[in-house]
Protein backbone atom coordinates (compact mmCIF):
# COMPACT_ATOMS: atom_id res chain seq x y z
CA UNK A 1 0.00 0.00 0.00
CA UNK A 2 2.67 2.45 1.06
CA UNK A 3 4.87 1.30 -1.75
CA UNK A 4 2.04 1.90 -4.20
CA UNK A 5 1.44 5.38 -2.86
CA UNK A 6 5.12 6.14 -3.09
CA UNK A 7 5.14 4.92 -6.65
CA UNK A 8 2.19 7.13 -7.47
CA UNK A 9 3.86 10.06 -5.78
CA UNK A 10 7.01 9.42 -7.70
CA UNK A 11 5.00 9.41 -10.91
CA UNK A 12 3.38 12.67 -9.93
CA UNK A 13 6.73 14.23 -9.28
CA UNK A 14 8.38 12.64 -12.27
CA UNK A 15 5.73 13.76 -14.73
CA UNK A 16 6.31 17.48 -14.39
CA UNK A 17 10.02 16.86 -14.32
CA UNK A 18 9.74 14.90 -17.57
CA UNK A 19 7.60 17.63 -19.09
CA UNK A 20 10.08 20.24 -18.03
CA UNK A 21 12.86 18.17 -19.58
CA UNK A 22 10.88 17.68 -22.76
CA UNK A 23 10.36 21.40 -22.87
CA UNK A 24 14.02 22.02 -22.28
CA UNK A 25 15.21 19.56 -24.92
CA UNK A 26 14.07 21.44 -28.01
CA UNK A 27 15.41 24.62 -26.47
CA UNK A 28 18.76 22.95 -26.02
CA UNK A 29 18.62 21.57 -29.55
CA UNK A 30 17.71 25.01 -30.78
CA UNK A 31 20.66 26.60 -29.06
CA UNK A 32 22.84 23.85 -30.42
CA UNK A 33 21.77 24.41 -33.98
CA UNK A 34 22.39 28.09 -33.55
CA UNK A 35 25.89 27.84 -32.23
CA UNK A 36 26.66 24.99 -34.61
CA UNK A 37 25.49 26.68 -37.78
CA UNK A 38 26.40 30.28 -38.28
CA UNK A 39 26.10 29.29 -41.89
CA UNK A 40 22.37 28.62 -41.56
CA UNK A 41 21.81 31.99 -39.92
CA UNK A 42 23.71 33.63 -42.77
CA UNK A 43 21.20 32.17 -45.22
CA UNK A 44 18.60 34.67 -44.02
CA UNK A 45 17.88 37.26 -46.64
CA UNK A 46 16.63 37.57 -50.19
CA UNK A 47 17.50 35.58 -53.28
CA UNK A 48 16.48 36.62 -56.73
CA UNK A 49 15.43 34.23 -59.46
CA UNK A 50 15.40 35.41 -63.06
CA UNK A 51 12.93 33.09 -64.76
CA UNK A 52 13.92 32.32 -68.33
CA UNK A 53 11.82 30.59 -70.94
CA UNK A 54 11.95 26.90 -71.63
CA UNK A 55 10.36 25.18 -74.62
CA UNK A 56 10.14 28.45 -76.53
CA UNK A 57 7.27 29.46 -74.29
CA UNK A 58 8.11 33.15 -74.37
CA UNK A 59 7.52 33.22 -70.62
CA UNK A 60 9.80 35.16 -68.32
CA UNK A 61 9.67 36.65 -64.89
CA UNK A 62 11.30 37.47 -61.63
CA UNK A 63 10.95 35.73 -58.31
CA UNK A 64 12.25 36.92 -54.98
CA UNK A 65 12.65 34.39 -52.20
CA UNK A 66 13.17 35.94 -48.79
CA UNK A 67 14.07 33.69 -45.91
CA UNK A 68 13.69 34.59 -42.26
CA UNK A 69 14.33 31.62 -40.05
CA UNK A 70 12.07 29.01 -41.61
CA UNK A 71 9.57 31.47 -43.05
CA UNK A 72 10.06 31.71 -46.78
CA UNK A 73 8.35 34.60 -48.54
CA UNK A 74 7.95 33.76 -52.21
CA UNK A 75 7.05 36.58 -54.59
CA UNK A 76 6.77 35.97 -58.32
CA UNK A 77 5.91 38.29 -61.20
CA UNK A 78 5.82 36.51 -64.54
CA UNK A 79 4.64 37.37 -68.03
CA UNK A 80 4.25 35.57 -71.34
CA UNK A 81 2.32 32.66 -69.85
CA UNK A 82 -0.77 31.09 -71.40
CA UNK A 83 -3.64 33.52 -70.62
CA UNK A 84 -6.50 32.28 -68.48
CA UNK A 85 -4.77 28.98 -67.75
CA UNK A 86 -3.44 27.66 -64.43
CA UNK A 87 0.33 27.45 -64.18
CA UNK A 88 1.74 24.85 -61.84
CA UNK A 89 4.84 26.22 -60.13
CA UNK A 90 7.35 24.61 -57.85
CA UNK A 91 10.63 24.94 -56.11
CA UNK A 92 12.69 22.07 -57.44
CA UNK A 93 16.02 20.67 -56.39
CA UNK A 94 17.76 18.74 -53.69
CA UNK A 95 18.72 19.69 -50.17
CA UNK A 96 21.36 16.96 -50.06
CA UNK A 97 24.02 18.82 -51.98
CA UNK A 98 23.11 17.52 -55.45
CA UNK A 99 23.83 20.12 -58.08
CA UNK A 100 20.61 20.42 -60.02
CA UNK A 101 20.10 23.20 -62.53
CA UNK A 102 17.65 24.41 -65.16
CA UNK A 103 17.54 22.10 -68.21
CA UNK A 104 18.25 23.18 -71.76
CA UNK A 105 16.87 21.81 -75.04
CA UNK A 106 19.25 18.84 -74.91
CA UNK A 107 17.06 17.39 -72.17
CA UNK A 108 14.42 16.62 -74.82
CA UNK A 109 15.18 12.90 -74.99
CA UNK A 110 12.35 11.91 -77.34
CA UNK A 111 13.04 14.88 -79.65
CA UNK A 112 9.39 15.95 -79.83
CA UNK A 113 10.43 19.56 -79.39
CA UNK A 114 9.26 19.72 -75.81
CA UNK A 115 11.28 19.17 -72.67
CA UNK A 116 8.59 17.51 -70.60
CA UNK A 117 8.58 17.66 -66.83
CA UNK A 118 9.79 14.06 -66.71
CA UNK A 119 12.60 14.85 -69.14
CA UNK A 120 13.53 17.89 -67.04
CA UNK A 121 13.61 16.02 -63.73
CA UNK A 122 17.17 14.71 -64.12
CA UNK A 123 18.30 18.33 -64.52
CA UNK A 124 16.19 20.25 -62.05
CA UNK A 125 15.47 17.54 -59.56
CA UNK A 126 12.22 16.58 -57.94
CA UNK A 127 9.56 18.94 -56.63
CA UNK A 128 10.60 20.18 -53.20
CA UNK A 129 7.83 22.71 -52.60
CA UNK A 130 4.61 23.20 -54.56
CA UNK A 131 3.93 26.93 -54.86
CA UNK A 132 0.18 26.62 -54.46
CA UNK A 133 -2.13 29.55 -53.79
CA UNK A 134 -3.50 27.94 -50.63
CA UNK A 135 -3.33 24.77 -48.55
CA UNK A 136 -0.71 22.06 -48.83
CA UNK A 137 2.65 22.93 -50.37
CA UNK A 138 4.25 19.48 -50.50
CA UNK A 139 5.18 17.57 -53.61
CA UNK A 140 1.81 15.82 -53.65
CA UNK A 141 0.09 19.11 -54.53
CA UNK A 142 2.45 19.55 -57.46
CA UNK A 143 -0.19 19.03 -60.13
CA UNK A 144 -3.24 20.31 -58.28
CA UNK A 145 -4.00 22.90 -60.92
CA UNK A 146 -7.08 24.04 -58.99
CA UNK A 147 -4.71 25.57 -56.41
CA UNK A 148 -2.17 26.98 -58.85
CA UNK A 149 -2.18 30.63 -59.97
CA UNK A 150 -4.08 31.39 -63.17
CA UNK A 151 -2.52 33.78 -65.70
CA UNK A 152 -4.63 36.86 -66.42
CA UNK A 153 -5.83 37.76 -69.92
CA UNK A 154 -2.39 39.21 -70.69
CA UNK A 155 -0.57 36.07 -69.57
CA UNK A 156 0.65 37.61 -66.31
CA UNK A 157 0.95 35.85 -62.98
CA UNK A 158 1.47 37.71 -59.70
CA UNK A 159 2.05 35.43 -56.77
CA UNK A 160 3.00 35.94 -53.16
CA UNK A 161 2.90 33.55 -50.25
CA UNK A 162 4.77 32.89 -47.03
CA UNK A 163 5.55 29.22 -46.56
CA UNK A 164 7.07 27.58 -43.51
CA UNK A 165 9.85 25.37 -44.84
CA UNK A 166 11.97 22.63 -43.31
CA UNK A 167 15.32 23.46 -41.76
CA UNK A 168 16.93 21.51 -44.61
CA UNK A 169 15.33 23.77 -47.19
CA UNK A 170 16.34 26.83 -45.18
CA UNK A 171 19.93 25.57 -45.01
CA UNK A 172 20.10 24.70 -48.72
CA UNK A 173 17.93 27.43 -50.17
CA UNK A 174 20.68 28.48 -52.58
CA UNK A 175 20.71 25.00 -54.18
CA UNK A 176 17.08 25.26 -55.27
CA UNK A 177 15.35 26.77 -58.29
CA UNK A 178 11.93 27.86 -59.41
CA UNK A 179 10.03 26.29 -62.33
CA UNK A 180 6.72 27.43 -63.80
CA UNK A 181 4.78 25.03 -65.98
CA UNK A 182 2.19 25.28 -68.73
CA UNK A 183 2.88 26.02 -72.40
CA UNK A 184 0.86 26.45 -75.57
CA UNK A 185 2.87 24.89 -78.41
CA UNK A 186 0.15 25.22 -81.07
CA UNK A 187 -0.87 28.75 -80.09
CA UNK A 188 -4.55 28.00 -79.57
CA UNK A 189 -4.58 29.79 -76.19
CA UNK A 190 -5.35 26.68 -74.19
CA UNK A 191 -3.85 23.41 -73.02
CA UNK A 192 -4.70 20.53 -75.32
CA UNK A 193 -3.38 17.11 -76.21
CA UNK A 194 -1.48 18.07 -79.40
CA UNK A 195 1.71 17.02 -77.61
CA UNK A 196 0.03 14.06 -75.98
CA UNK A 197 -0.73 13.30 -72.37
CA UNK A 198 1.32 14.31 -69.39
CA UNK A 199 3.44 11.41 -68.20
CA UNK A 200 2.81 12.68 -64.69
CA UNK A 201 -0.98 12.60 -64.87
CA UNK A 202 -2.58 11.11 -68.03
CA UNK A 203 -5.71 13.15 -67.43
CA UNK A 204 -3.68 16.30 -68.02
CA UNK A 205 -2.26 17.35 -71.40
CA UNK A 206 1.50 17.49 -71.84
CA UNK A 207 1.08 21.23 -72.48
CA UNK A 208 -0.28 21.75 -68.96
CA UNK A 209 2.68 20.20 -67.16
CA UNK A 210 5.65 20.91 -69.45
CA UNK A 211 7.94 23.59 -68.00
CA UNK A 212 7.49 27.15 -69.30
CA UNK A 213 10.31 28.85 -67.44
CA UNK A 214 13.03 28.07 -64.95
CA UNK A 215 15.44 30.12 -62.90
CA UNK A 216 18.13 29.52 -60.33
CA UNK A 217 18.63 31.44 -57.10
CA UNK A 218 21.17 34.22 -57.09
CA UNK A 219 22.04 36.86 -54.52
CA UNK A 220 19.79 39.90 -54.33
CA UNK A 221 21.45 43.32 -54.18
CA UNK A 222 18.70 44.43 -51.84
CA UNK A 223 20.04 42.04 -49.20
CA UNK A 224 16.68 41.36 -47.64
CA UNK A 225 13.63 42.58 -49.49
CA UNK A 226 11.24 44.62 -47.34
CA UNK A 227 7.65 43.41 -47.34
CA UNK A 228 5.04 45.72 -48.88
CA UNK A 229 5.08 49.50 -49.20
CA UNK A 230 6.72 52.03 -46.90
CA UNK A 231 4.87 53.88 -44.13
CA UNK A 232 6.43 57.25 -44.72
CA UNK A 233 3.51 59.46 -43.79
CA UNK A 234 2.07 60.26 -40.42
CA UNK A 235 -0.48 62.98 -39.96
CA UNK A 236 -1.26 64.13 -43.48
CA UNK A 237 -1.43 67.77 -44.44
CA UNK A 238 -4.45 67.04 -46.57
CA UNK A 239 -7.76 68.38 -45.24
CA UNK A 240 -8.13 70.34 -42.01
CA UNK A 241 -5.22 70.72 -39.60
CA UNK A 242 -5.70 71.61 -35.94
CA UNK A 243 -9.44 71.02 -36.08
CA UNK A 244 -9.77 71.60 -32.30
CA UNK A 245 -8.23 75.03 -32.57
CA UNK A 246 -10.48 75.98 -35.47
CA UNK A 247 -13.60 74.62 -33.75
CA UNK A 248 -12.71 76.30 -30.45
CA UNK A 249 -12.05 79.59 -32.21
CA UNK A 250 -15.29 79.41 -34.11
CA UNK A 251 -17.23 78.53 -30.95
CA UNK A 252 -15.65 81.42 -29.07
CA UNK A 253 -16.49 83.88 -31.83
CA UNK A 254 -20.04 82.55 -32.03
CA UNK A 255 -20.28 82.77 -28.23
CA UNK A 256 -19.08 86.36 -28.36
CA UNK A 257 -21.79 87.11 -30.87
CA UNK A 258 -24.42 85.46 -28.69
CA UNK A 259 -23.31 87.38 -25.60
CA UNK A 260 -23.29 90.60 -27.57
CA UNK A 261 -26.80 89.92 -28.80
CA UNK A 262 -27.91 89.14 -25.26
CA UNK A 263 -26.43 92.42 -24.04
CA UNK A 264 -28.24 94.32 -26.76
CA UNK A 265 -31.53 92.59 -25.96
CA UNK A 266 -31.16 93.43 -22.26
CA UNK A 267 -30.46 96.99 -23.13
CA UNK A 268 -33.57 97.12 -25.32
CA UNK A 269 -35.56 95.57 -22.49
CA UNK A 270 -34.19 98.15 -20.05
CA UNK A 271 -34.96 100.95 -22.51
CA UNK A 272 -38.53 99.80 -22.99
CA UNK A 273 -38.95 99.75 -19.20
CA UNK A 274 -37.89 103.33 -18.97
CA UNK B 1 -37.81 100.70 -8.71
CA UNK B 2 -36.40 101.62 -12.10
CA UNK B 3 -33.04 103.05 -11.03
CA UNK B 4 -31.46 100.09 -9.19
CA UNK B 5 -32.69 97.70 -11.85
CA UNK B 6 -31.24 99.85 -14.58
CA UNK B 7 -27.94 100.04 -12.75
CA UNK B 8 -27.73 96.29 -12.26
CA UNK B 9 -28.98 95.87 -15.83
CA UNK B 10 -26.23 98.16 -17.09
CA UNK B 11 -23.61 96.35 -15.03
CA UNK B 12 -24.87 93.06 -16.46
CA UNK B 13 -24.71 94.44 -19.96
CA UNK B 14 -21.17 95.68 -19.47
CA UNK B 15 -20.20 92.27 -18.10
CA UNK B 16 -21.75 90.55 -21.07
CA UNK B 17 -20.07 92.87 -23.53
CA UNK B 18 -16.70 92.42 -21.81
CA UNK B 19 -17.12 88.64 -21.93
CA UNK B 20 -18.10 88.88 -25.57
CA UNK B 21 -14.97 90.92 -26.29
CA UNK B 22 -12.74 88.38 -24.53
CA UNK B 23 -14.37 85.53 -26.44
CA UNK B 24 -14.04 87.42 -29.70
CA UNK B 25 -10.33 88.03 -29.14
CA UNK B 26 -9.65 84.46 -27.98
CA UNK B 27 -11.73 83.06 -30.83
CA UNK B 28 -10.05 85.29 -33.35
CA UNK B 29 -6.58 84.25 -32.18
CA UNK B 30 -7.52 80.56 -32.25
CA UNK B 31 -8.98 80.86 -35.73
CA UNK B 32 -6.02 82.81 -37.06
CA UNK B 33 -3.56 80.29 -35.61
CA UNK B 34 -5.65 77.38 -36.86
CA UNK B 35 -5.91 78.82 -40.35
CA UNK B 36 -2.18 79.55 -40.30
CA UNK B 37 -1.53 75.87 -39.62
CA UNK B 38 -3.38 74.72 -42.73
CA UNK B 39 -0.99 73.01 -45.14
CA UNK B 40 -1.62 71.99 -48.70
CA UNK B 41 -1.83 68.26 -49.40
CA UNK B 42 1.42 66.85 -50.78
CA UNK B 43 1.77 67.04 -54.55
CA UNK B 44 0.79 64.04 -56.62
CA UNK B 45 2.54 62.33 -59.47
CA UNK B 46 0.91 63.49 -62.71
CA UNK B 47 -1.05 60.74 -64.43
CA UNK B 48 1.18 60.62 -67.49
CA UNK B 49 4.21 59.81 -65.37
CA UNK B 50 2.51 57.64 -62.84
CA UNK B 51 1.67 54.74 -65.08
CA UNK B 52 4.43 52.17 -64.69
CA UNK B 53 6.90 52.33 -67.51
CA UNK B 54 5.83 55.76 -68.69
CA UNK B 55 8.34 58.55 -68.53
CA UNK B 56 11.19 56.12 -68.28
CA UNK B 57 14.42 56.89 -70.10
CA UNK B 58 13.14 59.89 -72.00
CA UNK B 59 15.27 62.95 -71.19
CA UNK B 60 19.06 63.35 -70.78
CA UNK B 61 19.81 60.10 -69.03
CA UNK B 62 22.54 58.21 -70.86
CA UNK B 63 21.93 54.63 -71.97
CA UNK B 64 22.16 51.83 -69.47
CA UNK B 65 25.65 50.95 -68.40
CA UNK B 66 26.83 47.86 -70.20
CA UNK B 67 25.20 44.71 -69.00
CA UNK B 68 28.48 42.86 -69.43
CA UNK B 69 28.46 42.05 -65.72
CA UNK B 70 25.80 39.37 -65.66
CA UNK B 71 24.60 37.73 -62.50
CA UNK B 72 27.46 35.25 -62.76
CA UNK B 73 30.25 37.83 -62.70
CA UNK B 74 31.97 39.01 -59.54
CA UNK B 75 30.00 41.54 -57.52
CA UNK B 76 30.93 45.20 -57.99
CA UNK B 77 33.13 46.60 -55.21
CA UNK B 78 31.00 47.97 -52.39
CA UNK B 79 30.43 51.72 -52.54
CA UNK B 80 31.26 53.97 -49.59
CA UNK B 81 28.40 54.55 -47.15
CA UNK B 82 26.08 57.45 -47.99
CA UNK B 83 25.95 60.45 -45.65
CA UNK B 84 23.77 63.12 -47.25
CA UNK B 85 21.09 63.32 -49.93
CA UNK B 86 20.81 66.49 -52.02
CA UNK B 87 17.96 67.15 -54.46
CA UNK B 88 18.79 70.58 -55.92
CA UNK B 89 15.46 71.20 -57.70
CA UNK B 90 13.49 70.52 -54.51
CA UNK B 91 15.97 72.38 -52.26
CA UNK B 92 16.33 69.21 -50.20
CA UNK B 93 19.59 68.54 -48.37
CA UNK B 94 19.37 65.97 -45.62
CA UNK B 95 21.72 63.83 -43.59
CA UNK B 96 20.82 60.16 -43.90
CA UNK B 97 19.65 57.90 -41.11
CA UNK B 98 20.13 54.13 -41.35
CA UNK B 99 17.02 52.02 -41.92
CA UNK B 100 16.52 48.30 -41.37
CA UNK B 101 13.47 46.06 -41.16
CA UNK B 102 10.84 46.08 -38.44
CA UNK B 103 9.30 43.00 -36.82
CA UNK B 104 6.87 42.60 -39.70
CA UNK B 105 9.76 42.62 -42.20
CA UNK B 106 8.59 45.99 -43.48
CA UNK B 107 11.11 48.77 -44.00
CA UNK B 108 11.71 51.03 -41.03
CA UNK B 109 11.11 54.72 -41.56
CA UNK B 110 13.31 57.61 -40.38
CA UNK B 111 12.90 58.62 -36.74
CA UNK B 112 13.38 62.28 -37.67
CA UNK B 113 10.74 63.46 -40.17
CA UNK B 114 13.19 66.08 -41.45
CA UNK B 115 15.73 63.45 -42.45
CA UNK B 116 15.67 60.74 -45.07
CA UNK B 117 17.07 57.27 -44.36
CA UNK B 118 19.12 54.77 -46.32
CA UNK B 119 18.07 51.11 -46.27
CA UNK B 120 21.41 49.75 -45.17
CA UNK B 121 20.69 46.08 -45.86
CA UNK B 122 20.54 46.91 -49.55
CA UNK B 123 23.00 48.36 -52.03
CA UNK B 124 24.92 51.53 -51.19
CA UNK B 125 24.37 54.42 -53.62
CA UNK B 126 26.86 53.86 -56.44
CA UNK B 127 27.13 50.08 -55.98
CA UNK B 128 25.33 47.80 -58.40
CA UNK B 129 21.71 47.28 -57.47
CA UNK B 130 18.92 49.50 -56.20
CA UNK B 131 20.04 51.82 -53.37
CA UNK B 132 16.90 52.63 -51.41
CA UNK B 133 16.31 55.92 -49.55
CA UNK B 134 13.00 56.61 -47.79
CA UNK B 135 11.65 59.76 -46.18
CA UNK B 136 8.40 60.99 -44.67
CA UNK B 137 6.03 63.15 -46.70
CA UNK B 138 4.26 64.60 -43.66
CA UNK B 139 4.57 64.29 -39.92
CA UNK B 140 1.97 65.40 -37.40
CA UNK B 141 0.31 67.61 -39.95
CA UNK B 142 3.57 69.32 -40.91
CA UNK B 143 5.53 68.99 -44.12
CA UNK B 144 8.37 66.49 -43.86
CA UNK B 145 11.60 66.01 -45.84
CA UNK B 146 10.05 64.34 -48.92
CA UNK B 147 6.92 66.51 -49.09
CA UNK B 148 7.67 67.60 -52.66
CA UNK B 149 9.15 64.31 -53.92
CA UNK B 150 6.32 63.78 -56.45
CA UNK B 151 7.39 67.04 -58.15
CA UNK B 152 10.64 65.45 -59.37
CA UNK B 153 10.78 64.93 -63.12
CA UNK B 154 12.63 62.60 -65.44
CA UNK B 155 16.13 63.86 -66.14
CA UNK B 156 16.53 65.87 -62.93
CA UNK B 157 19.55 65.21 -60.72
CA UNK B 158 19.73 63.63 -57.32
CA UNK B 159 23.05 63.57 -55.48
CA UNK B 160 24.31 61.39 -52.67
CA UNK B 161 27.36 62.57 -50.73
CA UNK B 162 29.39 59.66 -49.42
CA UNK B 163 31.67 58.94 -46.54
CA UNK B 164 34.86 59.19 -48.62
CA UNK B 165 33.93 62.70 -49.74
CA UNK B 166 32.79 61.63 -53.20
CA UNK B 167 29.34 62.33 -54.61
CA UNK B 168 27.26 59.85 -56.61
CA UNK B 169 25.13 61.74 -59.13
CA UNK B 170 21.93 60.05 -60.26
CA UNK B 171 19.50 61.03 -63.03
CA UNK B 172 15.78 60.48 -62.48
CA UNK B 173 14.43 57.91 -64.95
CA UNK B 174 10.87 57.58 -63.66
CA UNK B 175 8.52 59.00 -61.04
CA UNK B 176 5.61 56.73 -60.22
CA UNK B 177 2.86 56.32 -57.68
CA UNK B 178 1.56 52.92 -56.57
CA UNK B 179 -1.17 51.77 -54.21
CA UNK B 180 0.56 50.25 -51.17
CA UNK B 181 -1.38 47.05 -51.73
CA UNK B 182 0.05 46.83 -55.25
CA UNK B 183 3.54 47.96 -54.32
CA UNK B 184 5.82 46.61 -57.08
CA UNK B 185 8.45 45.14 -54.76
CA UNK B 186 10.33 43.35 -57.52
CA UNK B 187 10.56 46.43 -59.75
CA UNK B 188 11.66 48.60 -56.83
CA UNK B 189 13.95 46.17 -55.02
CA UNK B 190 14.94 43.70 -57.74
CA UNK B 191 18.50 43.38 -59.06
CA UNK B 192 19.60 45.92 -61.65
CA UNK B 193 22.35 45.79 -64.26
CA UNK B 194 24.07 48.89 -62.88
CA UNK B 195 23.95 51.24 -59.87
CA UNK B 196 20.46 52.65 -59.39
CA UNK B 197 18.58 54.71 -56.83
CA UNK B 198 15.08 54.52 -55.36
CA UNK B 199 13.56 57.37 -53.36
CA UNK B 200 10.35 56.40 -51.57
CA UNK B 201 7.72 58.38 -49.72
CA UNK B 202 3.97 58.32 -49.17
CA UNK B 203 1.30 59.73 -51.42
CA UNK B 204 -2.28 59.40 -52.53
CA UNK B 205 -5.17 59.84 -50.15
CA UNK B 206 -4.56 60.24 -46.45
CA UNK B 207 -7.00 58.58 -44.11
CA UNK B 208 -7.16 60.54 -40.87
CA UNK B 209 -8.91 57.63 -39.18
CA UNK B 210 -6.03 55.18 -39.53
CA UNK B 211 -3.17 57.66 -40.14
CA UNK B 212 -2.48 55.98 -43.43
CA UNK B 213 -1.60 57.10 -46.91
CA UNK B 214 -3.03 54.91 -49.65
CA UNK B 215 -0.02 55.09 -51.96
CA UNK B 216 3.73 55.22 -52.20
CA UNK B 217 5.56 57.61 -54.50
CA UNK B 218 8.71 56.05 -55.92
CA UNK B 219 11.43 57.93 -57.80
CA UNK B 220 13.67 55.70 -59.93
CA UNK B 221 17.17 56.93 -60.79
CA UNK B 222 20.31 55.68 -62.49
CA UNK B 223 23.92 56.56 -61.73
CA UNK B 224 25.27 59.21 -64.11
CA UNK B 225 28.67 59.92 -62.64
CA UNK B 226 30.74 60.01 -59.48
CA UNK B 227 32.35 63.30 -58.47
CA UNK B 228 35.48 62.84 -56.39
CA UNK B 229 35.58 64.90 -53.22
UniProtKB/TrEMBL annotation, chain A:
Organism superkingdom: Bacteria
Keywords: Membrane, Signal, Transmembrane, Transmembrane helix
Signal peptide region: 1-29
Membrane-spanning intervals of the chain: 244-264
Name this protein carries in UniProt: CHRD domain-containing protein
From TrEMBL, chain B:
Keywords annotated in UniProt: Hydrolase
Keyword tRNA processing belongs to the record: no
CDD domains from the UniProt entry: Sortase_F (cd05829)
One Pfam family matching this protein: Sortase
Region (Disordered): 36-85
Protein name: Class F sortase
Amino acid sequence: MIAKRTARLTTLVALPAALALAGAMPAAAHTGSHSGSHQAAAENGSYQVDLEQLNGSGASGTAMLTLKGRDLNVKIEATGLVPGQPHAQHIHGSTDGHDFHCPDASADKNSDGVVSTAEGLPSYGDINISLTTKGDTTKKSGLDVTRMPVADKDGKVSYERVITVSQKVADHIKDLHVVQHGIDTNGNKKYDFNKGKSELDPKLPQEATAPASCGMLAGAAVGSMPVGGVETGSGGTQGVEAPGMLAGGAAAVLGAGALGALAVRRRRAADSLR
Amino acid sequence: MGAPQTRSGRRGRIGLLAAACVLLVVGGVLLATGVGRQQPAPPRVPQAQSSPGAGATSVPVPPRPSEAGGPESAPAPPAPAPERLVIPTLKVSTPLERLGLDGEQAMETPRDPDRAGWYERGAAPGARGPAVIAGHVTWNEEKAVFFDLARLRTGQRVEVERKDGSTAVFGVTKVAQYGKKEFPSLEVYGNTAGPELRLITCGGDFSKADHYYSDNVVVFGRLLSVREG
